[in-house]
Structure formats: structure tokens, C-alpha cells
Specification:
The structure holds two protein chains of two kinds. By secondary structure, chain A is α+β, with helices and mostly antiparallel strands. Among the domains of chain A are: 161 residues, Rossmann fold; 133 residues, no CATH class. Chain A has 38 helices and 31 strands. In chain A, a hairpin with a 7-residue loop joins strand 28 and strand 29. In chain A, helix 14 runs parallel beside helix 17, helix 19 packs across helix 23 and helix 25 packs antiparallel against helix 26. By secondary structure, chain B is α/β, with parallel strands linked by helices. Among the domains of chain B are: 80 residues, Translation Initiation Factor IF3 (2-Layer Sandwich), CATH 3.30.110; 103 residues, Dihydrodipicolinate Reductase, domain 2 (2-Layer Sandwich), CATH 3.30.360. Chain B starts with 7 loop residues before the first strand and ends in a 9-residue tail after the last strand. Classes of the chains: A alpha+beta, B alpha/beta. At the A-B interface, helix 25, helix 27, helix 29, helix 31 and strand 24 of A face helix 1, helix 3, helix 6 and strand 16 of B.
Chain lengths: 1157, 318
């Protein structure tokens, strides 16, 4: 049998046969031999950690290594900053894709969206929010090539994906963007190299990568992450590369940046115009608009009552803020028990300006894209949500009038029950939507809901909230939807709160309403038992409520007051200062006095003495009107007489350390006066029974003891933690406290009133008086950022900055030339004055910024906190050549006045000179001027110092001056003075978003530019031209000393003037007769000299000849070189032209693609 | 081109100090009208005008416009500049009246404050300089304003002639720290200053004796200092006063004070002061009644973290 099988296998005909019968022989690794030895070595290397390799070999080395480790530890540390963003529900991380045009930004965006949501966008505009993980959402935004957008994006972005064309290298825009980032707090940057497939040669590719990486590292930091994307497949980057990139993005940690940590901001992902159509029509679209913007709050809490700044538009007033349901919610604990993100959640994407699922939001319309040819009959094809809705809309066959009639039922919009009964198409849909809203599980559904409302022209959510009973006719463009709809994109909490509003509104008018309604509103009555009993007591408040209800106040306002009251009145019987102070219009006097009465009425256990005391004090404070503004209350001996009583004296014994034990004291404290404890925000619960309180106190005590014990025995290291950890712990504790304090306020409205809207909330901000151009020229590719301003930042003043011209900016900056600053949220043009500190005595104006050095700059602008960075530009248009970042710097100081001086030199000449006194003219023009400068220091050019004394009567403006020495008539006398100057109050916000061509904003022009545009010549001051200085030869008269004086002088001092010799000297008059040899010698010498001269001349000539030849040769060489250069340049230009052509083709190639989809 | 800033309207002369201080701190212009319109002597008083003067001196760019009758006032606040200042206070109010608003402003100035005030140092309307030194400044220290915070009493001056001089030094802070102070604790020590000028030094000792007679029953840790100024430093008119402060285990401070009245024995003054201290203690809270405003203001001006503080019953000024 065995043999048979083997035979079979060997024949190789059927292995299957053999497998059935017997398994293969197990592999046995060989136990010896060279291979085994090799493997062993490898294994050892892999598995075991070789201590020897890392242990220091010597003491010195060990020391050095230790030091290095400590240094590395220190570089890890940063100044601890409080992170204002909540950890539980953080806002989406803003990821901007930045790069020059044609580098592949849109492709990357689409690839990333595809990676996260499995949806393909055909048109990616505006912010796109996706859920990236269980704790992270991402908002992608593509930054266009406009410098304005780059600046705005740079201020809000958390992570930059900086795209670089690998085949081309860095472009100027990238560097400009990096410089903008640097001055506004550096967010994280990941570089991405694309178009690497254009480089064919492997060696070139390697070199390019290396070079670009090196450059990138010098710009960001050594070791900054740089990705390489190879090529495009199916209009996307390769999936693996995108997956890698997305992994990096999802684990990225962010450090809070100071400016963003102190300012709320949001990146608007939707803009809606709420202005009544009629108003727009009558004003021909020129009226100021009311606009809502939607977005996630970032940074810190957004409070009510603050102004906001939209870069490119200006400062705007916030009319209202409403928290909406999260359109792209993070998976919560209930829906997600798994570790990974479920596939369903992965599909969430919120991109109102893009066409997700074929729906695009515009400023005033919603478009539904239908792929292919569309017929109403084609039911077989599964329809998208948008399609479905539009079809439904077309199905509606009731008239507007019908709709109005029916809509009158919907008085209290928030209660959906009333509407369930009816059944027409619109109704059913409505019900469905309501449910979906309540469930809040589907972000897309939410989106879709609001589409309809806008399509109908019912976008005025606010109106609907205001007067829901009012059957408004809507716009003429009404498509005939039968049912009025509730604003669906509101948070359930608001719905709930409006319900509560009704719950507490137990005044008569409300009840009438209820009676008039159908019987489906029974629940209002049911909820009545929630009404706190003491609401009745507060008559005044009740009146107020009535008044509120009768007047047609906006609903939300009504809500707030109700909520405040309700939330406060739910608290147990304790004087509620929050309520008294903030929500009643009593005067402080009334509040205090009424409380005292209440107190005396209610607290029976307080002693009568105190009661009496209060009364006395009250009368004090009311009748003594004049003396109110004093800190000390007048002492009242009568009231103080209570302390003569022994018992009274003993009663406060427990408040001293020698007094009774803690519990006793607590009890006493509780008993003796309710006002004794008052918490800043809201009183804690007190209605707990005594036992419970005691147990709590005991538990707290135990916990405290345990903590102390732990501290002492468990972790002795915790007591001596370093400063860094200590600070961090402190911050964490404070954050914890903040959370705990606000967690106690359950009601979101009240909470929003107190602390504002927390980061991470999706809100709708209504802005009033927005210039109509923002809406008219809205372009979704330009980001709209809503930056919250601190109260101080609305003011204006003189801002002093430390400024440095950017070293890549080619021109110097001149004082009083307009410059565009990007500071805080704002971009504005202003005229700075540059100055330097002159020996700490004065700030001296500089005409131009110094080279390679910081100087001070002062300009008029919005107040900004010191230490805020800024960058400045001369122009923001893209056609400006070269590097556009003109200067960078930091704010130093804000003031209302500035003290910058420039030097002023007044010159004069002597009129008459006495000994040390001289009359000076031509310095002033009148005696009055002289009077102003009496006592001023003057100086001559030669350095003789003096003083202005008094004006002379005769030549106007001449004065007497004294000097330390006699001056000359030829001396110029000058007076050095300082003239103080102030920057011009010019502030011109850059309103680029208001333009139709957003790139072409132009503010005040430079003088030169104006002259060029106007065709004017630069005025030429004759005195400013450079002329040849002609200095006449000075002739000094000979010094003449009178003979009498001369004779009196000592010999040494006598001028020793001697007459010139008149006779010829011997040397002059002698005759020379030479011997023959001598003659010969002289002649010979002459000949030799002549020869020599001739030789030198000839040599010189030859040399010059040689030089000439050389010059000619060099010329020839140069001509050749020039020719070569020309050739080279030609070659280069040809290549560049080809590239641009290719690019243009690529652009064209992309165009049709877009059209196709 | 300034933006039209919102003008805040007030009427009446009450709380003028607080209104001015809040206006300057918030930078919002205010207009106060109907200042004593029906009074025999209508309009602003001399001390109020003096206060406006000193505020103008302490700030840069402040515009103050007072109507012809003095019954209306417009304040466009500037920036708190600080620096060295000297001011002569009128004799109608004591130095404490001027010190209080300046204490609120000083930490937020640009340069450290160095302020010299001359006038009455102690009267029965405003905090005496002793209380400012021993109570107000410790309250500022709760907010991290401590290094270089000092009030030097150079000379004392009693009403009516005054002649005192104090020097107030205050550092500047970047940000006041967040207060978390909810545990009032128990009184562990009582301190006091009995001062007497141009009267017999024995007066202060008598006041101390009387006060001790009441307080000794509670705790042993009572130190009452006798502070007698002589000659030049004692001002122009005679007077004496006792200021007391009680400090708890958590360093909450309560204070009280009584000043001399004509025809009242020093013992009675001392008893008055002592008893008002006991009243103050019985009211509880972590913050002295007179400093509620200051503490609340500082809490508001702090960072956006939540601060907590337990206080006694609010007063009218609060």
C-alpha cells in the first residue's frame, strides 16, 4: 500500500489522492550547520537589549550623557497654558490645505474626504467637517491663493497641510504663508510634496526630495514631517498614502495658542441672509443686511453682548446667538460602545457649501443636483434625499391659502403632538422630520430639513419664532408648500426650554390660550405641579411676567427671564441674590430692605435684637441721603448696646478658635442668620436634613484626612514636585472647578447667559447691519471667520509695536507711508511712525526703518493686548512682485497719546559780536518767538556753547546771547530743539470680502504710486538738490602788533620778523671753471642719463602695447561668454514656457472634468 | 475715526466713586446727571471734584466735562497710567475716600503707583488709613497683588485741620489670580491700633484697656498697639481713634473702627469700636463688609476661571 502511494506521488499525476490519505511531514528545522549559527546570531540581536551598547564607558561620558538627557528633558517643557477647549466635546480641528495653484489641493481634499466618509465630492467649497474618530472631528478647508485668505486661515487653523509642487519647488506664496503663521502663533504644519511623478529620474527625485526637505526643515523645525504623494489615480491620490497621512492627522496633538485661547472664533460653514425680501427689493439690494452665520465655536467661550469681527468685513454687532443641534456629532457613549468608529458614523460629513449628496447651500438658496437625465417617472432608480424632498414638494397640491389656514393650528410650535393627526403629504413629511430631529441621529437628515425651509423662502427663522401665530404670507416665490415649518435645526434643548416657558407661564393670558386650543395640549396643565410654590409670593415678578407675555417681546427674551426666574425659584427657600439682583428691577435699597423684612418675618430663630438692629440700620440708610457715599456706616451706639449683654457676648464664642466644636458652630451658624453664608453664584442646596448634612460633613472630613495621609505616606514624591508639574496641576484643578461650577446649572440658556457658549458648540450667530456687498459678492471659496472681540478691543488708541522690516522685503519702509497690518483678527491699513529710543531720553522719529534691526512703530488702530504678534504688508494684491510680507513684529504698548519727537534745528548768524556776548539774527522772526526760547541752549558750529538771553528791539527776531567764548562773525549759531509729532488717526479696515473681485482691494496708495497714477512729477525743492559746494578762499589779515605793545613783550613772545636778504650770497655770485677731465665726466654722465631716459620710455611703450593686446583678448573672451549666457537663458525660458503651457493645459484639462460631473 | 462708543447714563450723586472706577476699568464713557439738583448747594462737592482731578492725573487721555451748574458730568475714560502722583485732598473728606477708588485702579496701571496724599487720615466717614493698611491691602493680597504693596503713614492728621500724609505704593499685575475662598474659619487673633495725636499719649492706653476688657474673654491672642505721633508728624488738630481687626484661621479679616468725638471718653470710643467688631464677626463671611465691593470687583476682573468667595450679607454699596 505504502509503496503504491509513493509510486503515485512520484509519478506526479495526482497529489490530491495522496493528501487525502496522509498529512505532509511536518517541517523540522535543522539543528546544526552554518545557517543555524547565523540565525542564532540574528535572534540574539533582535531580542535582547544590549546594555553595553548604551552604557557610558567612562565617568566623564556618563556625566555628559546625563547632562544631555536633562537638557533634552528641558526642551520638552513648555510654559503651561490653560486649555479652554473642553475635552469631552471638542470643536473640530481645523485643517487647512494651503499651497500655490495647481499643486493638487482640491485633489487632496477630495481624497481625504473620501478616506473619512467614503463620499466623493464633485465640488469642494467652503469648510467640510467630518468625523475622524471617536474623539475627533476635522474641518477641512482649502485655502485659495489670495493673501487675504491666507492671513485669515493662518489665524484660525490648527493644522496646516502645506502643499509643495515637488517638480517646481517652493513658491513665494508658501513662504509668505509661513511668515503669516509665524506672526500669529505657529500652528502645526505638515508638508506634502506632490507632482513627484513628473520627475522621471530616480537620482533627481532623491536629490529633489532631499533638497526640499532641508529647506522645509529650516522653515518649520528640524525633523518636521514631510509627506510625499506620488501620483494621481482616478482623480485621487493613492489610498495608502492618504491613509498614512490621515493617521498622522488623527494622532496630532495641539498646543493651545495664546491668542486663540483668549478669543472665541468660528469658521462659518454657512451664511444665510435673513433680510426681508421686500426691504431688499425696495432698496434695490443696497440695504444693510441681517445675516446669520453657522459654525463651531473654537477658542474660548463666546459670550453674549460682545462684538465680533469678520476679517474682510469689519466689526459687527451680534444680534443673537442660538445653539443648534450638532450637524456632525461625535459618537456618544450610547451609540458607540465599540472601540472603533462604526461605519455608519464614518459617513457623516457636514459641508453646506459643497455638494454632499447632491445638495449645495448658497447664501439664499439651496440647490439639489440630480445626476444624469431626470424624469419624474423613474421610480426605479433609488433617489437621493434631496431629490426625494424636491419631488415631495412638487407633489404638494394644496394652495397657499390652505397652508395658511392649517398653519394657524400650530400656535405652539414646539409641541409636535398636535400635528400628528392630519395626513397629507406635507404633514407626514413634517412629522417624519420632527422625529428625526428628536432622535438627532442623522446629521444629513438635519441638513435636509432646513433645505426645505429655505427653498420655500421661509428662511427667516427668527420671524417664525417671533410671531408664530401670525400667518405670514411668505415671499412671492412661494412654491406652495402647505405647512409652515418649525425651524428644525434647533437643539432639542431649545425646544424643551420653550416648553418650559409655557410650563411656567401660568398667568391668565396663557391659560386662555390653552382653552382656545384643542385638547391635545393637556400636558401644559400637567406640568403645572412643577411650578415652584414661592413663585406666587413674588408678586412683582409675576406682574412682570404678565407684562412680558402681553407685550410681544421676542420669544427668546421672554424665555430667558422666565428661565432665570424658574431656575432660581426652584431653589429652596433661601434668599436668592442672583434672582434679586439680576432679574428684578428693584433698586438695591429695595432689595436689601425687603430682604431684611423677609428675614425678620421668616427666620424665627434669629434673635429679636438682630431684627431691631436691621431696622435701625435701614432707617439710617434711607434718611441720611447726603452721606451715602461713604465706606463706613455710622456707628450706632444704641444698636451696639446689645453687646453689653453677657449672653449675646457668649453667642458668638463659637466663631473663635477657643469656641465650641465645628458641628456645633455650623449649627449655630445656620441658625443665627441666613445671610451668614452667601455664595457668589448660586446658593447650594440646603434643604437636606440635618443628619444628612452631618453625614456629609463627616465624609468630607474623612476624605480630607485620607488625602492628608496619602500625601504623607503613600507618595512622598508628590510633596516635592517641581514647579512645572505644580503649575500644571493647579491649572487642572481650576479647570475642574470651573466645570463643576457650571455643571450645576442644568439649564443651557442660563448657562449660556453666565458663561457663554462653550467651544465645540454648533451655533448660529445673527449679525445685524452687515454690508450688502458681503451677501451680493459671496464666494464660498473665501473663508468667513467670525472672531470674537474682547471688550477692550473695540476701542481705539495709539498702538506701539516693535517692528522689523522683513529681510526678504526689498524696499525700506518710510514713516507716514500707509501699511496694511494684520493684527488680532483685523486687517487694516494705517500710517505708522517709526522711532528709536534715543538714550532712553526721548523717542526719536526715524524717517526709514533701519536695516536688520528692530525699531519702534506707532500707529493709530484698535487696542490689542501687548505681546500680540502681527505682520504688515504694503499691498495684498497678487500682482505685486516679490515677497509681500513687509514687516513683522509684536505689540508693546497701548496709549492715548504718544511722545515721539523729531529734531528741529534753528540756525542764525551773529549780527554783532562783543566779548562773549553776541547779537544773533535770522533765527526767529519775532520777539515773541524769542521770548519762548529764553534760556535755551545754543551752540556754534565750532562748538562754542551759549544761551539765549533776551530779544532785541531793532531787527525783528534778533536776540542777545552769551557764549563761553568769543564767536566769529563767520560762525553759524544753531539751536537744537525737539518737535513732537503724532501719528495720523487713519484706520482703514481691509474690506476684501465685500468686493466682487476679492483680490483687488486697494487702500490708500503710497505717494509715489499716486504720482505715477496721476502722471505727476515729484516736486523738486531747489534747496534739496545737490550742488557743488563753493568755499571761497579765506584770507586772513596779517597780525599786527603795535610797536608799543611789542616792546613790552618778553623776547620769547616777540614776533621775530626779519627782512629778506637783498644782496646775493657767495654761492650765487661765484663762477665755476672746470678742468677738461671734469668736463668729460660731466658730459658722460649727461649722455648716460639721456640713454636711460630713452630706455625707460621705450619700455613703457612696449608695456602699454602688451596691455592693449591683453585687453583685446579679454574682450573677445567676454563676448564669447555673453553669447553662451544668452544661449543658456534662451534654454531656460523655453523650459519655463513649456511648463506654463503644460500647466495651462492641466487647468483646461481640469475644467471639463468639473463640468462632466 | 473712532467708533461710536456707547455712552452709559446715570443719574444722582450716589456711588459716584464706583461708577467712575468701573467706567475707567471698562473703558466705557459715562454720563452722570442730576447731581444734587434740588440741593441748597447743587452740583458736585469739592471732594468729588478733587476725586475727578486725581483720576485725571492717574490716567492718560481721560476727558472730564462738568456742566456749568455742576449737576452733570461726562467722563470719557483713558488708560490708567500710574506713576508718581501727589495730591492735596480737601479737608471735607479724609484720605480714605480717595484711596479706595485708587486701590481698585492701581493694580491695572501701566507703571507702579506711587501716590502721596495729604489731608485728613482718619475720620468717621471713610476708612482710616490704618484700616486701609491693615485690611484693604491684605484683601488685595488675596488676588496675588503683594510684592511692593505698601501704605506708609508719614503723618497723621485729624479733622478738622488735617495735615496728615500717606504714601501708597502699588505694583502692577498682569492678571489677578483667581480667588477661591469659601471657608471663613475661626477667629484666631485680634489686632488693633490705638492712635492719638496732639492729645495725651495716655488716651491710647486707656482705649486699649477698655477694648481688652471686652475682647479678653474670647482669645488670648490680642495685641493692641499704641501708636502716638508727635510733633510735625501729628498733624494740625487733636484726635484719637481705635481700629481693630480680627483675623481668622483662613485669614479672613473683619475690622471695625471708632474715632474720637468731642466730649466722649476714650473708653467709650474703644467700646464702640469693639462692639462693632463683634457685630462684624457675627455677620460672618470671608470678606469684611466694607470690602465686599473691592473683592467682587477683583473677582470680576480676574481670568475667566471660576472664582468663589463666601460673603456676608450684601450692603448697599455692594
Amino acid at each position: 500500500m505504502l509503496a503504491f502511494h509513493t509510486a503515485f506521488t512520484k509519478s506526479g499525476n495526482s497529489v490530491l489522492f495522496a493528501m487525502d490519505d496522509r498529512p505532509h511531514k511536518a517541517h523540522r528545522p535543522s539543528q546544526s550547520g552554518a545557517k543555524v549559527e547565523k540565525k542564532k546570531g540574528k535572534e540574539k540581536q533582535q531580542n535582547s537589549f544590549n546594555e553595553k551598547a548604551f552604557a557610558p564607558k567612562s565617568g566623564r561620558r556618563a556625566e555628559r550623557q546625563g547632562r544631555r538627557n536633562v537638557e533634552k528633558d528641558q526642551t520638552r517643557l513648555h510654559v503651561p497654558l490653560v486649555n479652554r477647549t473642553p475635552d469631552d466635546e471638542p470643536p473640530p480641528v481645523i485643517v487647512a490645505i494651503v499651497g500655490p495653484p495647481g499643486v493638487g489641493k482640491t485633489t487632496l481634499l477630495k481624497s481625504l474626504v473620501r478616506r473619512y466618509t467614503k463620499q466623493t465630492l464633485s465640488e469642494a467649497k467652503g469648510p467640510i467637517t467630518v468625523v475622524a474618530g471617536k474623539k475627533r472631528r476635522l474641518t477641512f478647508i482649502e485655502c485659495n491663493n489670495d493673501l487675504n485668505s491666507m492671513i485669515d486661515i493662518g489665524k484660525i487653523v490648527d493644522l496646516v497641510l502645506l502643499m509643495i509642487d515637488g517638480s517646481f519647488g517652493f513658491e513665494m506664496e508658501s513662504f509668505e504663508f509661513l511668515n503669516v503663521l509665524q506672526s500669529h502663533g505657529f500652528p502645526k504644519v505638515i508638508g506634502i510634496l506632490t507632482h513627484l511623478d513628473l520627475i522621471k529620474k530616480a537620482a533627481t527625485l532623491r536629490d529633489t526630495k532631499k533638497a526640499l526637505k532641508k529647506r522645509f526643515w529650516t522653515e518649520i523645525y528640524q525633523g518636521a514631517k514631510l509627506f510625499y504623494l506620488s501620483g494621481v489615480l482616478n482623480g485621487r491620490y493613492p489610498d495608502t498614502e492618504i491613509l498614512n497621512l490621515s493617521r498622522f492627522v488623527s494622532v496630532m496633538k495641539f498646543r493651545p495658542l495664546v491668542f486663540r485661547n483668549t478669543h472665541p472664533y468660528l469658521l462659518a460653514d454657512r451664511l444665510e441672509d435673513l433680510t426681508p425680501r421686500e426691504l431688499i427689493r425696495t432698496s434695490k439690494g443696497k440695504c444693510d443686511r441681517t445675516v446669520t452665520v453657522y459654525g463651531y465655536i473654537h477658542g474660548t467661550n463666546l459670550r453674549l453682548g460682545t462684538k465680533v469681527h469678520i476679517p474682510g468685513v469689519g466689526d459687527l454687532d451680534v444680534k443673537s446667538i442660538a445653539k443648534l443641534g450638532d450637524p456632525c456629532p461625535l459618537p456618544d457613549m450610547n451609540s458607540e460602545k465599540r472601540r472603533k468608529l462604526s461605519e455608519k458614523k464614518k459617513l457623516l460629513v457636514h459641508a453646506p457649501m459643497s455638494d454632499v449628496g447632491g445638495v449645495v447651500y448658497d447664501k439664499d438658496a439651496v440647490y439639489v443636483n440630480v445626476p444624469g437625465s431626470f424624469t419624474r417617472a423613474s421610480r426605479a432608480v433609488p433617489q437621493g434625499e434631496g431629490e426625494q424632498m424636491v419631488m415631495d414638494l412638487q407633489d404638494v397640491n394644496s394652495t397657499l391659502e390652505d397652508g395658511v389656514a392649517r398653519s394657524s393650528i400650530k400656535l405652539f410650535g414646539s409641541s409636535s403632538k398636535a400635528l400628528v393627526v392630519e395626513d397629507n403629504t406635507g404633514r407626514v413629511e413634517y412629522e417624519h422630520e420632527q422625529q428625526s430631529d428628536e432622535e438627532e441621529d442623522d446629521g444629513d437628515g438635519d441638513d435636509a430639513d432646513s433645505i426645505i425651509s429655505e427653498d420655500e423662502g421661509f428662511s427667516e427663522d427668527e420671524e417664525m419664532e417671533d410671531d408664530e401665530s401670525d400667518p405670514s404670507p411668505g415671499t412671492p416665490a412661494h412654491t406652495g408648500r402647505s405647512q409652515r415649518r418649525q425651524p428644525t435645526r434647533v437643539l432639542p434643548s431649545i425646544g424643551k426650554s420653550s416648553k418650559r416657558d409655557i410650563e411656567y407661564a401660568e398667568s391668565d393670558s396663557e391659560f386662555e390660550y390653552n382653552e382656545g386650543d384643542d385638547n391635545k395640549r393637556v400636558r401644559f396643565d400637567e406640568t403645572d405641579d412643577h411650578i415652584p410654590s414661592d413663585e406666587d409670593e413674588d408678586d412683582e415678578d409675576g406682574d412682570e411676567q404678565d407684562a412680558d407675555n402681553k407685550e410681544n417681546l421676542p420669544k427668546w427674551k421672554r424665555n430667558i427671564s422666565h428661565l432665570l426666574e424658574s431656575s432660581s425659584s426652584q431653589r429652596p427657600r433661601r434668599r436668592d441674590w442672583t434672582k434679586l439682583i439680576y432679574s428684578s428691577d428693584l433698586t438695591p435699597v429695595q432689595i436689601l430692605s425687603s430682604n431684611k423684612e423677609e428675614d425678620s418675618r421668616e427666620s424665627e430663630n434669629t434673635s429679636t435684637e438682630i431684627d431691631e438692629f436691621f431696622h435701625v440700620k435701614k432707617s439710617d440708610s434711607t434718611n441720611d441721603d447726603e452721606m451715602l457715599d461713604q465706606t463706613k456706616d455710622p456707628l450706632n451706639p444704641k444698636a451696639l448696646q446689645q453687646w453689653e449683654d453677657e449672653e449675646m457676648l457668649d453667642s458668638i464664642r463659637n466663631l473663635f478658635i477657643t469656641g465650641a466644636s465645628a458641628e456645633d458652630a455650623d449649627e449655630e451658624g445656620e441658625g443665627q442668620g441666613e445671610g451668614a453664608s452667601f455664595e457668589d453664584l448660586e446658593p447650594g442646596p440646603v434643604d437636606t436634613t440635618d443628619e444628612k448634612a452631618r453625614a456629609d460633613a463627616l465624609a468630607a472630613k474623612k476624605a480630607e484626612l485620607k488625602r492628608k495621609f496619602d500625601e504623607q505616606y503613600d507618595e512622598p514624591s508628590s510633596s516635592n514636585v517641581d514647579f512645572y508639574t505644580e503649575k500644571k496641576d493647579e491649572m487642572a484643578r481650576q479647570l475642574e472647578l470651573n466645570r463643576a461650577e457650571f455643571a450645576a446649572i442644568e439649564d443651557p440658556e442660563t448657562r449660556a447667559l453666565v458663561e457663554g457658549y462653550a467651544p465645540g458648540a454648533y451655533v448660529r450667530i445673527e449679525l445685524g447691519d452687515v454690508p450688502c456687498e458681503l451677501v451680493n459678492h459671496f464666494d464660498p471659496t473665501y473663508p468667513i471667520i467670525v472672531g470674537g472681540l474682547l471688550p477692550a478691543e473695540e476701542r481705539f488708541g495709539f498702538v506701539q509695536v516693535r517692528i522689523k522690516r522683513h529681510r526678504w522685503y526689498t524696499r525700506t519702509l518710510k514713516t507716514n507711508d500707509p501699511l496694511i497690518f494684520s493684527l488680532g483678527w483685523r486687517r487694516f491699513q494705517t500710517v505708522p511712525i517709526y522711532s528709536l529710543d534715543d538714550h532712553s531720553i526721548r523717542m526719536r522719529m526715524l524717517k526709514y526703518t533701519p536695516e536688520h534691526m528692530h525699531c519702534y512703530g506707532t500707529f493709530y488702530g484698535p487696542v490689542t493686548l501687548p505681546n500680540t504678534g502681527f505682520c504688515a504688508f504694503n499691498t495684498l494684491t497678487s500682482d505685486a512682485p516679490g515677497f509681500r510680507v513687509a514687516a513683522t513684529g509684536v505689540v508693546l504698548d497701548i496709549d492715548r497719546s504718544v511722545k515721539i519727537v523729531k529734531k528741529l534745528k534753528l540756525t542764525g548768524v551773529p549780527l554783532k559780536i562783543f566779548k562773549n556776548t553776541a547779537f544773533i539774527k535770522d533765527m526767529f522772526s519775532s520777539a515773541l518767538e524769542v521770548a519762548k526760547f529764553e534760556g535755551a541752549n545754543i551752540r556754534t558750529v565750532s562748538g562754542i556753547r551759549g544761551q539765549v538771553k533776551k530779544a532785541l528791539p531793532k531787527p525783528d527776531g534778533a536776540f542777545r546771547a552769551t557764549f563761553e567764548d568769543k564767536v566769529l562773525m563767520s560762525d553759524i549759531v544753531f539751536l537744537r530743539a525737539w518737535y513732537s509729532i503724532e501719528p495720523r488717526k487713519f484706520y482703514n479696515p481691509v474690506t476684501s470680502l465685500l468686493l466682487s473681485d476679492k483680490n483687488q482691494w486697494s487702500g490708500m496708495r503710497l505717494t509715489g504710486q499716486v504720482r505715477r497714477d496721476e502722471g505727476q512729477k515729484t516736486p523738486l525743492n531747489v534747496n534739496s538738490t545737490y550742488k557743488r559746494i563753493e568755499r571761497p578762499e579765506r584770507r586772513f589779515n596779517p597780525l599786527k602788533i603795535p610797536a608799543k605793545l611789542q616792546s613790552a613783550l618778553p623776547y620769547a613772545s616777540k614776533p621775530k620778523l626779519m627782512k629778506a636778504q637783498s644782496r646775493q650770497t657767495y654761492m650765487q655770485k661765484r663762477a665755476v671753471v672746470m678742468e677738461p677731465e671734469e668736463k668729460k665726466a660731466v658730459a658722460l654722465m649727461q649722455q648716460i642719463r639721456a640713454l636711460r631716459k630713452d630706455q625707460v620710455a621705450r619700455r613703457k611703450e612696449k608695456k602699454s602695447e602688451r596691455r592693449e593686446a591683453q585687453r583685446k583678448k579679454a574682450e573677445k573672451e567676454e563676448a564669447k561668454q555673453l553669447e553662451k549666457d544668452k544661449e543658456k537663458r534662451k534654454e531656460h525660458m523655453r523650459a519655463a514656457g513649456q511648463k506654463s503651457k503644460r500647466e495651462a493645459e492641466a487647468e483646461e484639462g481640469r475644467g471639463p472634468k468639473r463640468r462632466k460631473t | 475715526m473712532t467708533l461710536p462708543s456707547s455712552l452709559i447714563q446715570f443719574s444722582g450723586h450716589h456711588y459716584i466713586r464706583h461708577r467712575l472706577v468701573l467706567s475707567i476699568l471698562s473703558g466705557k464713557p459715562i454720563r452722570i446727571d442730576k447731581i444734587r439738583p434740588d440741593d441748597k448747594n447743587p452740583g458736585l462737592r469739592d471732594y468729588e471734584i478733587s476725586l475727578l482731578r486725581i483720576l485725571e492725573k492717574a490716567t492718560n487721555g481721560t476727558v472730564i466735562e462738568i456742566s456749568v451748574t455742576g449737576t452733570a458730568l461726562l467722563l470719557k475714560p483713558g488708560i490708567i497710567s500710574g506713576g508718581t502722583l501727589t495730591h492735596e485732598c480737601p479737608l471735607s473728606r479724609s484720605v480714605g475716600y480717595f484711596l479706595e477708588p485708587l486701590v481698585m485702579l492701581a493694580p491695572f496701571a501701566k507703571k507702579p503707583f506711587q501716590l502721596t496724599l495729604r489731608g485728613i487720615t482718619t475720620d468717621d466717614h471713610d476708612l482710616s488709613v490704618d484700616l486701609v493698611r491693615t485690611v484693604t491691602l491684605p484683601h488685595l493680597q488675596l488676588f496675588g497683588i503683594s510684592d511692593g504693596l505698601e501704605l506708609r503713614i508719614k503723618k497723621r492728621g485729624s479733622p478738622p485741620a488735617g495735615g496728615g500724609e500717606v504714601q501708597f505704593l502699588c505694583p502692577i499685575v498682569k492678571q489677578v489670580t483667581t480667588l477661591n475662598f469659601v471657608e471663613p474659619g475661626k477667629i484666631k487673633r485680634i489686632r488693633g491700633i490705638a492712635h492719638a495725636v496732639r492729645v495725651s499719649p495716655q488716651f491710647s492706653n486707656r482705649m486699649i484697656e477698655a477694648s481688652r476688657s471686652v475682647l479678653n474673654r474670647y482669645i488670648p491672642d490680642i495685641y493692641l498697639y499704641s501708636d502716638v505721633y508727635k510733633g510735625e508728624d501729628s498733624g494740625k488738630s487733636p484726635g484719637y481713634a481705635l481700629s481693630l481687626l480680627a483675623e481668622s484661621t483662613t485669614s479672613a479679616i473683619y475690622c471695625a473702627e471708632a474715632t474720637s468725638q468731642p466730649g466722649v471718653a476714650p473708653e467709650d470710643v474703644a467700646l464702640l469700636a469693639t462692639r462693632s467688631l463683634l457685630t462684624e464677626i457675627s455677620k460672618g463671611g470671608c470678606v469684611d463688609e466694607r470690602h465686599q465691593t473691592l473683592v467682587l470687583l477683583m473677582m470680576v476682573l480676574g481670568s475667566e476661571d471660576v472664582g468663589r468667595c463666601r460673603m456676608g450679607e450684601p450692603t448697599l454699596r455692594t
